[in-house]
Design a protein that fits this description.
With 791 residues, this protein is of the alpha/beta class. Helix 5 (109-120) crosses helix 6. It starts with a helix and ends with a strand. Bound molecules: 1,4-dihydronicotinamide adenine dinucleotide (NAI).
């Protein structure tokens, strides 16, 4: 072919990256890797290894140790041993080490990129230009937090030893997302990479040694799901951070339920990619190339559901098909390749199976006529159109290069369709109208929304899901909080059975019985209990204090329904919420005397007086916070701003403390209301009669009906109903160890967020423990809205 002919055809020639240096590096280890424990390489105790292969050729790359429970135990012990020394370092010294890790990643960036590509199958263009630079960025950014830790998080301490389990789609990047914040906050780590892609984690272990990270601060144990399971179950681990499938996330939620292990889960997604008729269609098509064909679609936040406004659907589909026809599928080490290999045979089969099922359910399948490699694991870029919103391909994560397209007519319908999923990880919105795009972004239930862009990530911008996409954030200030806890909470005394504090003021009982009809409070109205039963509430000496309605499953259902309907509370202005809470304070203060007298019959005069005084105080605090717990605007290193908005979680069930009937109730309910959540609260089981005092105060205030619902009853029984309820977004449970475990285990169904006292006592009378940021951090979830600027 002549130069002129070549120029006219504009065909790509092969542009292979030379893997020689990386292969030499592998040979240096004899292509056989043990675990990295306590700063040295250790052979697996039972001598078992597994193969890791190049999915683009099927060739074996190396043997890697299969971690057993014994290996995991050795790693956890090494991490524990390293902890005191690591924490004794000055923040500046830890910052220097994180900085060195960033530097070292950059120095070896090409080798790491090639290693990632041959182990995972992703195009070298992506590992070289996206994965590895972001890895370095994460360590730089968190070196900064290590430096500022004491100034910015006074009173907080590291969780301790953290177990981290990561998937195969972004092996080194997920490692960085996990290890950087854990180290910056003074934790030590045991990390288990995915079985298909362990090599870059092992290369990172070598880097830890090179920079002089103290032995045991980072431990890498390789293996499959059973290794992960052993790590999750190990009693010496204080926190688990997991990224992977929702199914395994659910299993981990259950497995950690009976422990005080802190948990963050970054799970699957089925993210909508919404294109309005006024969008720049060419940009939207280019965005889709990144949205669904980036990393072969094996991306948790892939824009896998294309929602097109009907008026432009045909035109957009044509443009999309034309662009798909130019995508190049092939050897991942070729620098001109768009789509590389699928990670493993099972994953390829899964993609194929789901696509066939989608077609059987009525979808039309279109694939371009592109050249496909003769061997290796590849899947053509695929467009499924006419997909019904209930079809499996619209609902399940495919994790492959497959786009499911649907249409909508109005922005409202777009939002409904977009939110019609159990997931809530990410979304893209395309419109040239800033009003439409931001209005829609605000309504989408997703942790990240990209406006006129997609798949943008940065260490400064929190990433994580709503709903069954998990909880917790990675990146940003909020990501650090996943690895920290207030020091007082770590040292708080254990609660005895029945949820009463073991230490603390003795309950002195005075006063005679009070006869009042106490009811449930649902949707702003007093209601009789469905059961028709009441509980006698007695004082310490057995005297009758009153009768409390016995709420049941049906009452909770009604309360949740009422709370859902009242979600406009979260959309009112923060100023408005503050005004309402101030007004509740005013009314509580006016009735303070009589409430105190009644409460004194249960908890004694002194405590009753303190509880009423502190409750008014607390109402003022959360009224003050309502318009001050602001988000942030991040400046990631691109032409974007990312608006981190703190949003209410939604509808939350609350089990209130037993021994502080009034103050305990307000201490948990107020941060949630202040944040704009609606609440179903189960008041103190020991003195549920407080419900009547509270709702009488509410009735004279302006809190909208349904924003706060109160269902007295047996705490454990009602906790079960709340935790299992599929339409609740979170449960807060203050109780003993059994109740905390139950809250976590039973909430695994819809993976609602769970926050408990870990069976420890909180002194609510002490404002440093009983109120403030720590509560609010659990009452909000961050949504990052990325907005580009410039032409
Ligand atoms: P997976 O969730 O099984 O694997 C992720 C990690 O968890 C791996 O390191 C694995 O060894 C570990 N693991 C597995 N079982 C475990 C257990 N019981 N306890 C502790 N750790 C355990 O994901 P898999 O099987 O590799 O992929 C299956 C599907 O999951 C994919 O097709 C995709 O739909 C989804 N997935 C989603 C990811 C995401 O980032 N959202 C990442 C990986 C997979």
């Amino acid at each position: 072919m002549s130069v002129i002919e070549k120029f006219a055809a504009m065909d790509y020639g092969p542009a292979p990256e030379d893997p020689k240096e990386t292969l030499v590096w592998l040979d240096g280890y004899g292509r056989k890797f043990g675990h990295f424990i306590g700063g040295t390489w250790k052979a697996p105790r039972d001598g078992k290894y597994f193969e890791t292969k190049d999915p683009s050729t099927g060739e074996k790359l190396a043997d890697v140790a299969q971690g057993s429970a014994v290996d995991v135990d050795a790693a956890v012990k090494a991490a524990r041993k390293a902890l005191p020394g690591w924490q004794a370092l000055r923040p500046h010294d830890r910052a220097k080490l994180l900085y060195a890790l960033a530097r070292q990643v950059q120095k070896h960036s090409r080798r790491l990129a090639v290693l990632e590509t041959i182990d995972n199958g992703k195009p070298i263009r992506e590992s070289r230009d996206i994965d590895i630079p972001l890895v370095a960025r994460h360590f730089y950014y968190h070196a900064g937090w290590a430096q500022l830790l004491e100034q910015e998080f006074p009173g907080y301490e590291a969780c301790g030893v953290v177990g981290q389990i990561i998937p195969w789609n972004f092996p080194l990047l997920m490692l960085a997302w996990k290890i950087a914040p854990a180290l910056a906050t003074g934790n030590s780590v045991v990390l288990k990479p995915a079985e298909y892609t362990p090599l870059t984690a092992l290369a990172f272990a070598e880097i830890c040694r090179e920079v002089g990270l103290p032995g045991g601060v980072v431990n890498i144990v390789t293996g499959d799901g059973t290794t992960g399971e052993a790590l999750v179950k190990h009693a010496g681990v204080d926190k688990i951070a997991f990224t992977g499938s929702t199914e395994v996330g659910r299993a981990i939620r259950r497995a950690t339920a009976g422990s005080a292990k802190k948990l963050s889960l970054e799970l699957g997604g089925k993210s909508p990619y919404v294109v309005f008729e006024d969008a720049d269609l060419d940009s939207a098509v280019e965005g889709l190339v990144d949205g669904i064909w980036f990393n072969q679609g094996q991306v948790c936040c892939a824009g896998s559901r294309l929602l097109m406004q009907e008026s432009i659907a045909e035109k957009l589909t044509r443009k999309l098909q034309a662009r798909m026809s130019t995508l190049r599928v092939g050897a991942p080490l070729d620098k001109g390749i768009d789509i590389g290999a699928i990670v493993a045979q099972v994953q390829l089969e899964r993609i194929d199976r789901l696509v066939k099922q989608g077609v059987a359910e009525g979808a039309t399948c279109w694939q371009p006529e592109v050249l496909m490699p003769e061997r290796g694991l590849y899947y053509k870029p695929t467009l499924l159109s006419n997909v019904h919103p209930t079809s499996i391909v619209a609902q399940q994560e495919i994790f492959g290069p497959v786009l499911a397209a649907m249409t909508f007519r109005t922005p409202r319908e777009a939002v409904e369709l977009a939110n019609n999923t159990v997931y809530g990880l990410a979304a893209s919105v395309w419109s040239e109208s800033v009003n439409v795009s931001l209005q829609v972004a605000a309504q989408l239930k997703a942790g990240v929304v990209w406006v006129n862009s997609t798949n943008l990530f940065d260490a400064a911008c929190g990433f994580g899901g709503y709903r069954e996409s998990g909880f917790g954030r990675e990146g940003g200030r909020e990501g650090l909080l996943e690895y920290l806890e207030p020091a007082w909470f770590q040292n708080a005394p254990a609660l005895g059975n029945g949820g009463k504090r073991e230490k603390g003021g003795a309950v002195e009982v005075a006063s005679p019985a009070i006869d009042r009809t106490v009811k449930l409070y649902i949707g702003g109205k007093q209601a009789r209990p469905d059961s028709g039963y009441s509980l006698e509430i007695r004082g310490k000496k057995g005297e009758l204090l009153g009768e409390s309605p016995l709420g049941n499953r049906k009452d909770i259902r009604n309360a949740v329904e009422a709370a859902r309907k009242a979600e406009a509370w979260g959309k009112t202005t923060a100023h408005n919420r503050a005004q309402v809470l101030y007004y509740v304070a005013e009314n509580l203060s006016q009735r303070g005397e009589e409430i105190m007298k009644r409460l004194a019959a249960a908890v004694g005069k002194k405590q009753a007086a303190e509880e009423v005084r502190a409750s008014v105080d607390r109402l003022f605090s959360y009224a003050a916070w309502a318009d001050k717990f602001d988000g942030a605007v991040h400046n990631p290193p691109m032409r974007n701003v990312s608006i981190a908005m703190n949003e209410a979680i939604g509808t939350v069930g609350v089990i209130c403390p037993t021994d502080m009937p009034l103050l305990g109730f307000f201490s948990l309910v107020l941060p949630l209301l202040s944040a704009g959540n609606t609440v179903v609260a189960v008041p103190s089981e020991a003195y549920p009669l407080i419900a009547a005092d509270v709702y009488q105060v509410l009735e004279t205030s302006d809190l909208p009906g349904g924003a706060l619902n109160i269902v007295p009853g047996r705490a454990t029984e009602l906790l079960k109903v709340l935790a299992e309820h599929d339409d609740l977004d979170a449960v807060w449970c203050y109780g003993n160890a059994e109740m905390c475990a139950m809250a976590k285990a039973l909430s695994a169904g819809n993976l609602k967020q769970v926050w408990t006292n870990e069976a420890r006592g909180i002194d609510f009378l002490n404002a440093r423990q009983g109120e403030g940021r720590w509560f609010l951090e659990h009452a909000y979830q961050a949504k990052n809205i990325w907005v580009p600027y410039g032409e």
